[in-house]
Amino acid sequence: MAREGSSILDSGDPLPTLTFDTVAHGRLTLPTGFGDGWGVLLIYRAHW
User: Considering its fold, how many domains does the chain have in total?
Assistant: First the structure.
């Protein structure tokens, strides 16, 4: 399970507010960036 602060996120929990700088579209803030529907967040670390 992913951790946000000292809390553990579980199925059905709301996504905490996250802000990312994207390569092509400027800054993206989630979960508001998903709009009113469902969204998928894929994080690829590339190298440990």
Answer: 1
From first to last of its 48 residues, the chain has per-residue pLDDT tens of 555 567 777 888 887 888 888 888 889 888 888 888 788 878 777 776
Write b or e for each residue in 1-13: b if 16 or more Cβ atoms lie within 10 A of its Cβ, otherwise e: eeeeeeeeeeeee
The CA distance from 15 to 31, in Å, is 6
What amino acid is encoded at 16 in this protein?
P
3-class DSSP state for residue 21?
A: strand
pTM of the model as a whole: 0.51
- Please report whether residue 46 resides in a domain: yes
Q: Indicate the residue type of 31.
A: P
Residue 39's domain spans which residues?
16-48
Query: Which tokens sit at 2?
Result: 């992913």
